[in-house]
Amino acid sequence: MGDLLQPWHLVVLGVVAFLLFGAKRLPELGKGLGEGLKGFKEGIKGVTDPTPAPPVVQQQNVAPAPPVSAPVEPQIIRKD
């Protein structure tokens, strides 16, 4: 089979792409392809890197709040 990407093959591929998509569409396709590859690389990097552990929050020495007592009902005093 030989080398698939010889210079002559690349020229033919370029001409075919130019004929299919036109001069205005080719830069947009290249930009989209580049952004896609960049996103793919970032995604692969996130998979291979271990996720860092969340930071440990240290608690301060604070006295606990006093317990909440039940509400006091007012007493009704009757004078007969």
Task: Summarize the entry for a quick read.
This protein has 80 residues and is an all-alpha fold. It has one helix spanning 7-48. The protein is built from 1 helix and no strands.
Q: What are the low-pLDDT stretches, counting only 5+ consecutive residues below 50?
A: none
**Total count of strands:** 0
| Largest sheet: number of strands, sense, barrel closure | none
Q: What share of residues is helical?
A: 40-55%
Mean pLDDT: 78
How many helix segments? 1
Shape: elongated
Distance between the termini: 117 Å
C-alpha-based Rg, rounded? 36 Å
N-to-C SSE string, H for helix and E for strand? H
Tell me the β content. Answer: under 5%
Structural class: mainly alpha
Helix/strand layout:
Elements: H1 7-48
Structure description:
With about 80 residues, this protein is mainly alpha-helical. It has a domain at about 1-50. Helix content is about 50%, strand content about 0%. It contains 1 helix and no strands. It has one helix spanning about 5-50.
List keywords for this structure.
80 residues, mainly alpha, elongated
